[in-house]
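Supplementary Methods, section 5.1.

A reviewer requested that the exact input to the structure prediction be made available. We therefore reproduce it here, unchanged from the version used in the analyses.
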Amino acid sequence: MRKIIILSILSLFAFASLNAQEITEVKDTNKVVAPPVMDSTYYLRNIFTMLDENGPASNKIKIEQSKVLESAFTSHIAQSAGKKISGYRIRIYFNNNQVARNQSGTVASQFSSQYPGISVYRTYTNPYFKVTVGDFRTKSDAMRLLKTIEGQFQSAFVVREIINFPPL
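The structure derived from this sequence is encoded token-by-token as follows.
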């Protein structure tokens, strides 16, 4: 009996102390920052040749640098071109019916004619014929293309694969 009284008094104190505490709401401090937009005029261009070109008002900046730096940069790009990395592609065709071989070829040629700058990969993994497109480092890059092509390829979806090293 005495234990019940002590437990009830303790529970009253605990409940009273919980009510007496001030509850403060902490706002979310995450800040959403848009990713930097890549200027497409610099895509696949060599920085060293761009530095030698005249500017918009025929102005020019001359930078003195060692030729070793330029050759090291060029050799790094050449070595990286053959590497494979983990990334994302978009699968636009996946089937195993009797006409899947012909359909996969048709889908691959249709895509490459509509989007000539994007790589197309046609593979056969028993028993499926697959057509995947693109080489993306991030899933968000792949999703951007998926949103563009989903009207023409309704069954398209993003897959994680080993991809060719995308150009810098």
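The chain is about 40% helix and 20% strand. These observations are discussed further in the main text.
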